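Hi R.,

Here are the chain sequences for the assembly we discussed:
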Amino acid sequence: MTFGLPSDWSLEVPERYFTLESYDGGVARWCPGCGDFAVLSAVQRICRDEQIPPEKLAVVSGIGCSSRFPHYVHGYGFHGLHGRALPVACGAKSRRPDLHLWVATGDGDCCSIGAGHWLHAARYNVDMVVMLFDNGIYGLTKKQTSPTTPVGYGTNTHPDGAWLPPLDPVQAMLGFTNTSFVARSVDWNPLHLYQTLRAAYHHDGTSFVHILQRCPTYTGDLFDELRGDPDRIELLTHPDGVPADEGVLRLYQNRREHDPADLAAAREQAARRDRLPIGLLYRNPDAPRYDQHTVEGLGMAPADKLQALERELDRFAI
Amino acid sequence: MTVADTVAAGGPASAVPRESVTERIVEIVSDSGEGAQKAGQSFGTVCAKMGNGVWTVEIIPAEIKPPARSPAGASGIRVRFASRPVTNMGDQADLVVAFNEQVLYGRIASGAYRPGTVVLLESKWAEDGQEEIRRQYATAVAELRAQGLEVLELPMETACREVVPDPRVGKNMFVLGMLCQIFGRDLDKALAEVQAAFARKGEQVVATNRQLVRHGFAFAAARIPLAWDVPSMAGAEPLVVMNGNQAAGLGILAAGIEVVAMYPITPATSVSHYLGRAFARVGGHLHQAEDEIAAIGYAIGASWAGKTACTITSGPGLALKTEFLGFAVMAEIPLVVLVVQRGGPATGLPTKVEQGDLLASLFGQPGDAPKVVLAPATIEECFHFVVLARRLAEELRGPVLVLSDANLATGVSPFPRPRPDAAWLAPPIDQAAWPEGLLPYDWDATTGLSPRPVPGQRGGEHVVTGLAHTRKGKVAYDPHSNQEGCTMRSRKLASLAATLRPPQVYGTPEGELLVVGWGSTVGAIQEAVDRLRQEGHPVSSLHLRFLSPMEPGLEEIFSRFRQVLTVEINYSDAPDAPGIPPQTRRRAQLAQLLREQTLVDVDCVSSVPGQPLAPGGIADRLRHRLPTAEPGESA
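And here is the predicted structure of the full complex:
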């Protein structure tokens, strides 16, 4: 075997090849400059690079600006109710292990109205990517305080500034039971975002990615410091972590070799306030998965099912 | 000798000839945790196996272990069995076995007994170490006798102690043996029930309980001068016996539903207890969600991705699921919702029956959310209606609510064994390519129906959304799209309504009074109608199974009666309530719907006692609505 065509002169062409256009769900209607565009591009690129058939692509969201995400991806989308993306996603996956499942949720959607589902979804550890679009504000309803709004940041509901320190979604995830994948990235570094989401896609279980996402309309200045001074960010590197691109390495000079298997170290990094760690904080490929239990009897033949039913009725027969 | 005389005299069963009767109502009442329900269920099953019609009703306190010896803590069971099919709990009991005298007060307050009801009462309290208890016991026995109850004091615990060291555990099986003796039941059948009930606990437990049954059987022969026989019905049709929740669970399996998502709530939860085991055998998955909202979300997610799923709940859970139900209507996702009604509002009466969720089911959502609402009237229908609901949910592409209630959920009765059919099972998930150019909401202009692309179908990619949307599933806020979407969703109900037939009238097709009911009250209402007709009153009844859309032809049927009224277990202002003129009187829920739908002045007889309706009670209340002419004159 050398190179070129095989000896029988046949040319092997995959039956279908998907391009970026294959995942184009139409013109996105986010504000110009919104960080959501960057996430959309990254996901579409991953779908292309992984050659996911669009009909096997399931994108589930809640309500909010970022939850419009499914509308802009060509695939099967579920734009659901505020806070309820995660239960829907878990249900969708329960008998459909063949679907590639992505969840788009915001800081209000996931960490506030849907917070009850959030910690349980972490524990279920169903195979899916959960993208938390964190812009620190309620955007769609026009600038109300979210659980992740920084203390002192002025909003329409707290004009003199938010009263309390913000909830840290990464720390929360690292505290939940059976969490299996926690990473963080930023919308303004598309390379790192792509690599992080791609690593998330390849993890078997719930891959939670905290994405710092700019809202040019209401919190345009929120990440100015982080964007203006890359030294405020610390890049987590490791052979088992998010692969770091040349460009990413050039930009982020502060780096730390962090083993994602080390939960205690992950919690320590997440708790830091001097620099913001980005990359893979934690991964446990062996965490039990709920969706391995939910497929019981999947594909049982109707004849077997009818027989089993008769046996059930026998239990009640008189 | 009368029963009173024999009971007063005491003595062995052989002292009286075995009397053949057509029906008997038996209760076992106790403190919580004494196994009365298990004994009663076993006794009911034995009767069913011997060919009797049977209906059992559990008497359940709201707490797991309420204080002992308290009237409100009465826990137990009623078994009504007869030489014909039994469809309801009946009126007053003929015989009651009581483990203490205090719990009887709770039942007396509920009108469960009459003068002449025989009480087999545990007598150990007469010699209790506490004077207060001895006094309470003596007072109660005197009061019960003064009320005409035939009290026979029996040392049941002492007798049990000959078999087990702690009679609190095991007394119930002793009572099962007693009842088998009194009613001439086949002891082997009772022993087989014990075997089935305790098999999981090991041979020793089975052996002890079988011994207790035999001991109770012998004890009654020696000490209780009662001997009745309730002959079996004719008929060789194979039967099954179960409660309504088990029937619904089997219906779920027979419908081919493979995902059921729920959150524990009384009185719906026992469906999941059955399914938790059965799914492992029949193929499927029970999801106990973190809350009611997550449960319906999970079910909707499973439905969206493939086969129609089911969520199970009761009133408070239905309230929490409100938003998602509206979503299923808007996004047109098939879903079966089983609502086992209890008393409301709020936490209400968790273990007690009410038919209070009808309007919430129809109108609970903001905006217009048309959906199908069915109400099984019997335990058998709990099975078949779930099968029907799954098909309707798919054909109409939306949620179907099945309104059961606590009476059906815990009542046990035999019915003809269903014959599972491959056609009942949900078809495999369609993964064929989606026809090119076919829109995801390709609404038929007349019926509003449209086929549904399922994830995995190539070419059918689209987004489901709770926002107003076009036929392409695209978000649209324009006036036309919203109007069109609402119209199409409403037309689906109209198209189903067009396939329904007018309901059958029970009794003559015209007369003085037509009683309309829905849900679990059918047996009690029809029995009440039978009694009134025997008295010469021209009364008929009609029972609705489809509440949304409603069965057709009602105006025409109503026009043949001088009066139409509903009998329901939900609240209405009494017609003579002070300060309430007819214009502002709040009527029972079905009555409201019927008035709106037919423009007939439909009245109602309704109350919220937290108990199933008894035929005698219904007949009494209906008599007040009938002309005062002597019964029989108008016949």
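The two ends of chain B are 38 Å apart (CA to CA). Chain B touches chain A through 68 residues (CB under 8 Å).

Let me know if anything looks off.

Best,
T.
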